[in-house]
Amino acid sequence: MSPKTFDIADLSDNLADLLSDIQNHVEVTLTCQRVTWARVLPLSQTEEPVIPKAGLNRDSMVMSNDFNDPLPDFFWGL
Questions:
Q1: Are 29 and 5 spatial neighbours (Cβ–Cβ below 8 Å)?
Q2: H-helix or E-strand containing 32?
Q3: Is 59 exposed, middle or buried (0-12, 13-18, 19+ CB in 10 A)?
Q4: Looking at per-residue confidence, does 56 or 7 come out higher?
Q5: Phi and psi of 39, rounded to 5°?
Q6: What is the Cα gyration radius of the chain?
Q7: What does the alpha-carbon distance between residue 17 and residue 69 come to, in Å, rounded to a whole number?
Q8: First-to-last CA distance in the chain?
């Protein structure tokens, strides 16, 4: 199917059509006064959503032992 364009000013009148097009994997462009705001692209049939895995970046952030200590007076300009 060919891409479709919806103006956000008319979105409440066309919401059902917009959602139907998205469900049918049609590329949709959202505009405001003919200026493009966003594009909704259909996922390919083989593309699966990316699910973050816990622990993937384990130990990539290191926090010093004094991170919760009060800041020195010179920091506050005293």
A1: yes
A2: strand 28-32
A3: exposed
A4: 7
A5: -125, 135
A6: 24
A7: 56
A8: 66
